Amino acid sequence: MASVSNEEINDIRASADIVAIIGSYIPLTQKGKNFVGVCPFHDDHSPSMSVSPEKQIYKCFACGASGNVFTFVAEYENVSFIEAVRIVASKCGKELSITTYNNNVSQALKEENEIMDLTQKFFLNNLRTKFGKDALEYLKNRGLNEDIIKEFGIGLSLDSNDSLYQLLLKKNYDIKKLLDLGLVNSVNGKTYDMFTRRITFPLWDKDGNIVGFSARVYRDEKDVSKYMNSRESKLFKKGETLYNYHKAKDIAKREKKIIVVEGFMDAIRISSIGIKNVVALQGTAMTTEQVQLLKKLRVKVILCLDNDNAGLIATINNGDELIKNEIETEVIRLSGEKDPDEYILANGGEAFKNNVDKPLSYFEFKMNYLKQNKDLNNVEDLSIYVNDVLKSLTEIDDPILKELTLDKMSKEYNLSIIVLKNKLEQLEPVKIKKEIKSTVIEKQRKDVFMIGSEKILYFMMNGEEYIREYQKKLGFFEDSLYREIANEIVYFYETNKEITVADFITYVNDKNDIRDKVMEIVNDSANDEVTIEAMDEYIDALSRVLVKNEIKRLKKLMKSELDEAKKLEIALQIKELKKEDV
Ligand SMILES: [Zn+2]
Questions:
Q1: How far is the CA of 59 from the centre of ligand 1 (A)?
Q2: Considering the chain, what is the average pLDDT of its residues?
């Protein structure tokens, strides 16, 4: 499958006029050299969105949305980035034949992706042949209609134990690659398909590339496990993905919440009743990578795990982890059936939707959980319970929630509010109190640093001369995120021999870790006048902060230094630096 190149995308962007394209979605009126309109990405009542024909970017003053013509179309139409490129191309009378685009995937992985895509096509096709009749019947009996089968790319592996292998062999793929990808297995020199006689479900990475398969039996088979999953490979890293993430993320952002379930069948079932902002862990414990993926969405997470003890424990463990990561968390506990899939099959979609409409806040849920197996009329049990709740409260930042909880406990169990407050204060980690004080100071100092760094990065996106200025006068950011962005800007320029803000936005689009920051920078600075003089002022300000920091560090070092000669050396260094610091 062919991929589209960055140059091609930049060409399409250059030939598309952002004012005309955005203007075809929302009314725009000219204001000075820019155009303004009512922002479609938040509940806007006055025109907060500004579109710059000069820079070919847009920004919303109210909600922070910003980007280039592709990101606008992708957000507005809720389609993938490549789909947005296709739409923009066709609006300019051009045609885009390719179907995949991925900056992140290196050339080396292109063939692996091709193999996966080809395998998926093969599985899809099998389901539509005479061999697929039973499987299709099975799926329909399980309440999965044609739309859902298509939406989730459900397919079929065949009876013959080397049909996929033969197909891939004909394409001259290296057998080692096929083994690595877990599509085939080799025993005593004979190679077999990994999946046979199973309904196949593709697994995607966060960008929507197929990285593996899960496959289940659909006929009475003895001595085989119901589900079989791809093993870990170069492409498939279990625990690094969330099933359905690439499709759910935009809808989740719009709805401002995402439902997290255990199994992919739960996600498919919930989707089938029209709730599309759902992802599956493919297990019970949430990994660090999964927490980070969720955090990036900046939406509320609703945990809806299985209705068994493992699911209950996992809800507490995952919930604690989400709260620690400052992610607003709510909980749905279904009753009766074992998981959301079976719950919906037994009770219907409306019953499930009612549950979604009334989730418990995580803290409320945890309070109930802590009550379990305790007799709160018993003084000892009550004391353990109150202590547990207070301990949980220390994890929470919300002072109002703390106050309300203490109040509620005080009334419910007839305890003195003062005693509860004192106890909570004792439990609060001491360092937090200290931290608050120092972060305020830190923040004020950091502001110059942050603003300066981000302005400089913005200037760098505007052309070679600004990149050169950075290299000449600064050359380095201490902060790793800023450094990464600066490196990407330099890399982009060196590869393309030119750079504009709008093209750089395209480039970072699939780089989740830096994209949000770049968008924020663009939004903050889009209206700044871009001149070398202005950039130099920021560089000077930043240099002064850097010098101050260095002096501070050296002074500390001097204090702890015992050797007099070395002490003098440091003192001289400080003196030198102070000359610069004027
Ligand atoms: Zn907005």
A1: 8
A2: 88
